[in-house]
Every structure is written in C-alpha cells, then in structure tokens.
Amino acid sequence: MTEIQEPPAAATDARGRVAELRALRERALRGPDERATRTQHARGKLTARERIELLLDNGSFCETEPLRRHRATGFGLEEKRPHTDGVITGWGTVYGRTVFVYAHDFRIFGGALGEAHASKIHKIMDMAISAGAPLVGLNDGAGARIQEGVTALAGYGGIFRRHTLASGVIPQISVILGPCAGGAAYSPALTDFVFMVRETAQMFITGPDVVRAVTGAKVSHNGLGGADVHATTSGVCHFAYDDEAACLEDVRYLLTLLPANNREIPEALPTTDPAERRSDLLLDLVPADGNRPYDMRQVIEELVDDGDHLEIHEHWATNIICTLARLDGHVVGIVANQPQRLAGALDIEASEKAARFVQLCDAFNIPLVTLLDVPGFLPGVDQEHGGIIRHGAKLLYAYCNATVPRVSVVLRKAYGGAYIVMDSQSIGADVTYAWPTNEIAVMGAEGAADIIFRKRIAEADDPEVMRARLIKEYRSELMHPYYAAERGLVDEVIDPADTRPVLVRTLAMLRTKHADLPSRKHGNPPQ
C-alpha cells in the first residue's frame, strides 16, 4: 500500500492560507516593480493608488477585485498576468459620504483596457448606480488593449452604455491625469464634469501622428488635446490644474456641492454669513450706465455665502458665468451674464455652456438663480451660419424644461430674445426681481428709435437733435425701471443692497416646490 503524502501545512492550515492571502494582497497592492513606479513619478504623475488616497478620506477605501487577472492568450499575454489587470476599483468616502471610484494604473499595460479591466469598471459603475452614489473615474490609460482585439472595444461599449444610464441619476466625474485617446475619450465626454492636469493629461480622438499624416499639420500632444486647449477652446474640460493634488482637492470640494443622486438634494451646511446681510457695495459695483462694463464675479461674491463659489468652465465662453455656491448654507446654481466679455451678449458657446449647466442643476435638484445683464444675442455672419438659432434654443429648452426652483434678477439690460431665454417670467421663472437700474425692452432705445422714428428723423431740420429727443422719449415711455413691474412681468423692483436676503427668503419659500412635466418618454431638445 502506497503511503499517502500529506500536502504542505500551508495548503491545509487556515493560518497558512491567510498568510498566502496576505502575500497575494501585498503583491497586488505593490503592483509592478519599483522601476515602473519611478518612471510614473518621473513623468510628473502619481500612481493610481496614490491618487485614490488623495481623493478619498483616509483609510476609507474598500477595493473590489484586487486579485483579478486577464484570461487572454496570444502575443505574449499569457505570460504576463498581473493582479488588478491595470485598473483599481472600489468605494470609499469623501467627507464621510460614499463615493465609487476607478483608477487606471498606467504601470500595468499602460492602463490599456482589456476584457477583465473593462469588467471591473462595469461592475463598479453598476454598484454606483444601484447604491445611488457618485462615480469618479481617474483616467490614465492608453486606450483599448490592441492584443485583445474587438473584445476590448466591446468593453468600451459597456462603459458608454452605463454612463448614459447613470446620466442624471448619479453625479459622474472624470479626472484626466494622463493620455485619454481614441474611443476612450468618449467616456469622459459622457460624464457631468471633466477635470484635467496641465502637461501630463491629453484627450483627443486622433493623435498628432494621424493628424499630420492626414492633414499635414504638425501639432504637439498638448497643442492638440492638452488641458488648456480643452478648457479654453473646445469646452471639453470644465477645470484645469497645474498639479494632481490641487485637482483632486477640488474634486472633493465639488462633491460637497452635489447630492448623492437625483432623489436627494445637496447637503445644507451651517454658515456664519448672515442670511439678512445687506451689501451696499453692490450700488457701486454695477454702474447705472448700461454701456459701462463691470465684473459680474464681484456681484456673485457679494451675494453668496462668504464669497465662495466654484465656477464651471471658467475659461470657456467667458461671456457667461455658471457657478455653484451656497446661499444661507443651501447649494444654488448661478447663471449670470458677464459684461466684461462681449458686453454679456449670448453667443453659440455661451448658450451651450449655460444650457448644460441648467440641465445639470435640474437633474440634481439644485435651485437656479439667474442674474441678467444681457444686450441680446451676438450679431454676425459667423454666428448665424454657425447655428445661433439652434444653439440658443438649447438654453431656452433647458430653462423651460427645468422644474427646480428658479429665481431671476435683472440688474441692468435685458433686451429682446436674450431676455426671454435667460429665464424670464414668461418661460417659467418662479419669481423675478429687478434692480432700479433695469432696462427691459425689445431692444436698446437707440436702435428702437432708429426703426420706429426713421421717417421723422430723416425729415427733421436737425436729424441728430430729433433723434436724441425721440430716444429720450422712447426710453421714458417704454424703458423706465418700473415698466415691466407695472405689467406683472417682474414681481418686485428691489434695492440692490437687499438682493442676498431677498434671494435667501425666496429660495426658502420655494424649497417645497413640486412641478410635474407632461408624461413622455423624453423630450427632443435642439441639437
């Protein structure tokens, strides 16, 4: 009879198995060799785990599938099967609130996406949707894993579908910390916010080599798809930073201004800034002369708690401001014309920027405050041929479709179609106020007089004197500060210094607002 050999103690003893597990976990946590980590740091980039540590509260991260390995064969893949498969997934907390996260590990396969890699991301996205908690993606990957062929492409399809299902349900934030090229770039494009770090992060569909081969144009990676390009020119990026630490700190801050999901409201925080605080400085900040510019950001800082706000798309479409702030501790979204740029007129990009912001606030139960000082839509052949009608209608549609509390304040000019589009009472603003410096009209007095009194001016002995008199007459008859209020188009003309307490009281009244849209599968907004 042959003697049966006992397996090694480690194979049957529980303590030995635990030791084996710890060794596996340690190997997964350590990742590839130190040389790969040094190379990552030499590029000015943190590792995936270092980034997660900065994003989440200390000690809160719970990792999923750290021992996952790919099962692909061919092209040498069967000989290289590292744990995690190049993506770290899991959940933790940000200021005590649950957040789900995935982070590409560029040290493993260059962060390229394969079947197992994609499956891990799919799972964490499904968990975020089911739990009703925000999802943050830390992107630093080389796109689809070429060795796995079409399987990798199918993995991206699953990510895109889940982004779409999660849209308007949970906040989705993409942080670009390295390359994000080809089809991979559509993942951030489907999310609510995109953060980028200068020099190390790039996004593009076709890289510089392809651009040069097809068009002959020579361009660098940053010149084609760097943070500043997307923050100022394309509008793809909402926030751009010089380093990863500052970037991830602002991701944490943004999460405090958002609810966990569309069934909740953003958390209200205590504030030491008095709700009834007057601001006489507003009387000096905004000139009564409608032709003189001023910085609308200074007005916003006077109104919100402690002057603190987080501006979205600060460097793109700068003729309009979209920002998140707090009033008496409650989060609000503010849309405001910026007279320092294009006199605050609406153009194609400003309309798109504001429309997306209004939709975001409406999706996540954030009340809207609109500050108007708008002379109209920007005139020009380029604007008309570029589809200003179509793009301007996006903003109109977004406001008309919004059911959150909506309060508008007319500071100075509010002319023509731009006045209507910027959340006027006629398209559903709940309460509208105006300062005594307001001018609400079809157009400016000069243009109106030139059209209405063209014949009288032409026939006058002194056309310039006649024109000046008729402009004054039109302004006194149809553009005085109380004309709209007399007709019920403005609820009240208020002292500018009282704007903060008026907004706080009005929003408190509207906090229990309930509005239903007509039953439908979905609308068909202008494109």
UniProtKB/TrEMBL annotation:
The reply to whether Cell membrane figures as a keyword in the UniProt entry is: no
Say if the entry is tagged with keyword Transferase.
Answer: yes
Q: Which UniProt keywords apply?
A: Transferase
- By its UniProt entry, which Pfam families does this protein fall under? Carboxyl_trans
Q: Which GO terms describe its cellular component?
A: acetyl-CoA carboxylase complex
Q: Which Gene3D superfamilies match?
A: 2-enoyl-CoA Hydratase, Chain A, domain 1
Gene Ontology MF, one: transferase activity
Q: What is this protein called?
A: Carboxyl transferase
